[in-house]
Amino acid sequence: MLGRRNPQGSLFEAHAWPHRVPADSFYARLGAVIEQLFSDDDLAELYCADNGRPSLPPSLLSGILLLQYYDDVSDAEAIARLAFDLRWKVALTLGLDFDPPHPSSLSVFRGRLLEHSQERYAFDRLLAVGRAAGFLPEKVSLLTLAPAASAGVDTPPNWGPGPCKTPTRSFAKGSGAC
After folding, report:
1. For the chain, what is the domain count?
2. Domain identity same for 48 and 118
3. 39 and 99 share a domain?
4. Which residues have a Cβ under 8 Å from the Cβ of 114 and sit 6 or more positions away?
């Protein structure tokens, strides 16, 4: 059964209190348009209309997946950030006392999206609403070339650090470098 977000809100919603999340950050801008961005009714077809317990609201899960992709974190880390990161609470207009779901809820939700060919829902809605709100450009570049490549020098694109960690990060976490 389709679960829905409570439109009443909470006295403890993060965006209602003074906070240090910059107003021009992605998180604050997302929080300003989150109600226009995702609607529970958009994904009602993913759920049985009259059977079972109410689900977690698909609008909330879509927002979590979007932030998870933006921050490039695992399911467990996404749920941890949902519990402790004020930026995520502001972006999703959640209360400071919000009790996050289990990390497996995200993989189950992704499975439902894939099953109904809705895997691009959150991304497509972000592009449409973000462009209309003016905080996303009309054209987004996914690959940046190294400065030498733009000057005509034959170099490969700058793909970032790749699968190898820097020695400082790998030793700090107690794992090998490569």
Report:
1. 2
2. yes
3. yes
4. none
Residue 139 falls inside a structural domain: no
Q: Name residues of the chain where pLDDT drops below 50.
A: 148-150, 157-158, 160, 162-178
Are 94 and 39 found together in one domain? yes
Domain residue limits at 24: 14-133
Placement of tokens 């927002």 in the chain: 63
Q: Percentage of the chain with pLDDT > 70?
A: 67
Residues 54 and 122 in one domain: yes
Max Cα distance, the chain (Å):
62
CA angle 99, 76, 81 (to 5 degrees): 55
Are residues 102 and 30 part of one domain?
yes
Residue 70: name the closest of 78, 60, 59 by CA: 78
- 57 and 129 in a single domain? The answer is yes
* Residue 95, beta-bridge partner list: 13
What token pair was written down for 19? Answer: 């906070």
Reference 30, options 108, 149, 136, 157; nearest CA is: 136
